[in-house]
Amino acid sequence: MKSFFQVLSEDERHRVHEESLDILKTTGVRIETDLGRRILKDAGAVVDENNKIVKFPKTLVETSLKQITREFTLSARRPGHDLIMNKGNSTLCLDGNGTMVLDYKTCERRPATYADWENVTRLSDALDEIGVFWCQVEPGDRVGDIGGTVDYLCRVFRNFSKHIQEGIDKVDEAPWYLEILQTIFGSREEIRKNHPVSWLLCPQSPLSIDKTFTDAYLATKGWNIPVGIMPMPLMGSSAPGNMISTIIQGNCEVLSMICLLEANEPGLPIIYAPALAVMNPRTATPGYASMEFSIMDSAATEMAGYYGIPSESSPGGSDAHVVNIQEAYENAAMNLPTILSCPDIIVGPGMLDGSMVSSLEKLVIDTEIFRLGRHAQRGVNTNDEMWLTDLIKKTGPGGTYLLEESTVKAVRSDDWYISDLGSHETYDRWKEKGKKDVLEEAHEKVNQILKNHEPLPLDDDVEQELDKICKRASAMA
Q1: How many whole angstroms separate alpha carbon 16 and alpha carbon 20?
Q2: Which backbone phi and psi does 271 adopt, to 5 degrees?
Q3: What is the DSSP string of 206-274?
Q4: pLDDT at residue 355 above 90?
Q5: CB distance 230 to 200 below 8 Å
Q6: 70 within 8 A of 273, measured Cβ to Cβ
Q7: How far apart, in Å, are the Cα atoms of 217 and each of 166, 213, 457, 473?
Q8: 84: CATH
Q9: pLDDT tens string 251-306
Q10: Which of 60, 193, 317, 394 is most buried by its number of CB atoms within 10 A?
């Protein structure tokens, strides 16, 4: 029997939906993209061009929800790492676009470079629990023109061999992006079928859809690229000051984007992914170490289940500035409810200071927290062969199960989790091994992986074509 964490009752989930329908019909959403408003108007939305407000009839929302492809796979280049969505088999995804790193050699905080980006990407590629790439840190030395964008995209596929959740920022980058995908993954039909990449689109809170990033995605029409819809309403600031109303607003923002995307490309695969964050009332900045954050995002996973849509959850994290006890207990506390709500993707390992600072050691530690949480998620195996009542009767009072074949088999099964990080032995043995703490162990593991791990290489002919694409893009820039 699987363990689970529940926030909303069935009636409460239904009320969130009904309240959202009312807001979308009567208040609407500001749609900044001209193309988006035209698409929605043709689909039956009520559009006011003077203020760019779009109102959504109930029938439009319900039709859009029916069109969604719910069962699909996010593929990976590396064999065995495809992600079958809508099963609640959680995997980790890197957090997005921090600007700083905690240098793993000097422990100093500084702006991120391409070398840092490559380190965190390669480390993540080596950790099996991290199944999805999102840009963890934005390299400060990245060139900002089309040549820099094309170079960056090629680096992504060279350094990470599992699923890529990475899009583009501008419409004119779309042909380059699609050419790179075809070079690596084959024809448009193969890409449409296998979904080697997905995107995140982030409606702006409250109740707005931007132009630039949305138009960039709309320029890929016909490629069937799955979209995670991730508004980031901040409770008390860009969302109302309590949890249930923030959940409702986030749901409105997701539903409005679903309507636009399904009207543009019916049957598009959707991932329900709102990051329902909390304002720190003392500073008016996001409070990532907030249990409200974790609870609301668990509720969002339940709303994804209500709609029958795959889910991507952002449980919050730590406000700590360095890797320490505060960082550890905050991340463990924030992640456990999220993992026990069983989303398909969990965002956020490896980040400090409100997800602005990347730490390689923290990435290793957070992966271990995820392993423990996923073990809790599995719950108790109650298959018939697991009850062992006959063995209990045979062994009787005062006996031992130490030498039983069933014990040996169980230790090697999912019923047991044996960690290889931290101290799990006698004091004397720990002392003999140098009395290392977890941070030291994590640092050693980082060094070992960065020294030895090489991502799955691309074929030579693919590399040659990517080099040609990069040279053309650089020449244009």
Answers
A1: 6
A2: -120, 125
A3: TTEE-SHHHHHHHTTTTS---EEE----EETTTB-SSHHHHHHHHHHHHHHHHHHHHHHSTT-BEEE--
A4: no
A5: yes
A6: no
A7: 11, 6, 28, 20
A8: 3.20.20.480
A9: 999 999 999 999 999 999 999 999 999 999 998 888 888 999 999 999 999 999 99
A10: 317
- Whether omega for the bond prior to residue 206 falls within 30 degrees of 0, making it cis, is yes
Please report whether residue 14 resides in a domain: no
Q: Which residues of 282-321 are buried (b: 16+ CB within 10 A; e: fewer)?
A: eeeebbbbbebbbbbbbbbbbbbbbbebbbbbbbbbbbbe
Element at 133 (helix H, strand E) = strand 130-133
Beta strand residue intervals within 326-464, DSSP E:
345-347, 351-352, 357-358
Residue 4 has pLDDT above 90, yes or no: no
> Which tokens in the block code for residue 184?
């690596």
Residue 59 is encoded by which pair of tokens?
């029938």
Higher pLDDT, 152 or 435: 152
User: Alpha-carbon distance 238 to 97, whole Å?
Assistant: 21
What phi and psi values does residue 11 have, to the nearest 5 degrees? -65, -40
Enclosing H/E stretch for 185: helix 174-185
Residue 441 lies in a domain: no
* Cα(133)–Cα(4) distance, integer angstroms: 26
| Strand, helix or coil for residue 46 | strand
Residue 286 DSSP label: B
Give me the pLDDT at residue 430, please. Answer: 87
Owning domain of residue 202: 66-378
Q: What is the pLDDT of residue 354?
A: 84
> Is residue 126 situated within a structural domain?
yes
Residue 429 amino acid letter? R
Burial class (CB in 10 A: 0-12, 13-18, 19+), 362: buried
pLDDT at 1 over 80: no
Residue-wise pLDDT tens digits, 68-122: 999 999 999 999 999 999 999 999 999 878 899 999 889 899 999 999 999 999 9
- Bin 203: left if φ > 0, else alpha if -120 < ψ < 50, else beta: beta
Kindly report, residue by residue over 405-432, the tens digit of the pLDDT.
Answer: 999 999 888 888 889 888 888 999 989 9
In a domain, 394, yes or no: no
For residues 30-57, give the mean pLDDT: 98
The amino acid sitting at 75 is S
Q: How many distinct structural domains can be found in the chain?
A: 1
**Mean pLDDT on 158-172:** 97
**Nearest to residue 312, comparing CAs of 230, 427, 379?**
230
